[in-house]
Specification:
alpha/beta; about 230 residues; binds adenosine-5'-triphosphate
Amino acid sequence: MLTIDKLNFSYGDLKVLWDIDLEVHAGEIVTVVGANGAGKSTTLKNISRLVKPTSGSITFQGEELEKLESHQVVERGIVQVPEGRKIFPEMTVLENLRMGSYIKSARKAREANVERVFGMFPRLKEREKQLGGTMSGGEQQMLAIARGLMANPKLLLMDEPSLGLSPLFVKIIFEIIQEINRQGVAILLVEQNVFQSLKIAHRAYVLETGRVVLTGEGNDLLSNEHVKKAFLGM
Ligand code: ATP
């Protein structure tokens, strides 16, 4: 579905991604783990065309993304749920959701999608008139995910969805990710919660200073000695 081939990227003189190869197949949850600054967020930004690769190719369903602007990437079905949530604090929950369906294909399905995401997130339904900025961190994260779903994604890019959340919300968020995946959406997940994210991943990649150093099935990586030492404190 998504194929990244020898992606290189620099911020000015600072090279942060080196020959990244990565694939997401239909139906998969793929996790990218790595320490702070390893280049996880930058990889997602290259896919959604918020930044442009220095070299290498990214194709989605057979189409090279090189000529596309970020809104066109969304139209193709790749939707990013950004780190830090970035909901609209002065808008209500419902208004935030509607903002998620700005692309043409999603606009038609807007009201049906509102009902669908409220079905998945009853807590948002209860708060539909509340201002986004007054919601708890976990609720804002739910809203950001729900807003992403409003664009009818085929592939959801998720940047640190569990960051800063209480253990209960972390659990809820990981359940939600699996539920979205069961509904047929492929997921590329960037996480510092290595244990949880490897547990739910079909496959995973370990990034270190901008390079893929390990890849395999989520369960296999959980028992990998390097992963245990570097990320699981074992
Ligand atoms: P974290 O988990 O801390 O967000 P990450 O693995 O997502 O880490 P990136 O955010 O992709 O890492 O950052 C990779 C490197 O690129 C870091 O060294 C970072 O300082 C640098 N970097 C990120 N954004 C910019 C920017 N806009 N300009 C310059 N350098 C940047």
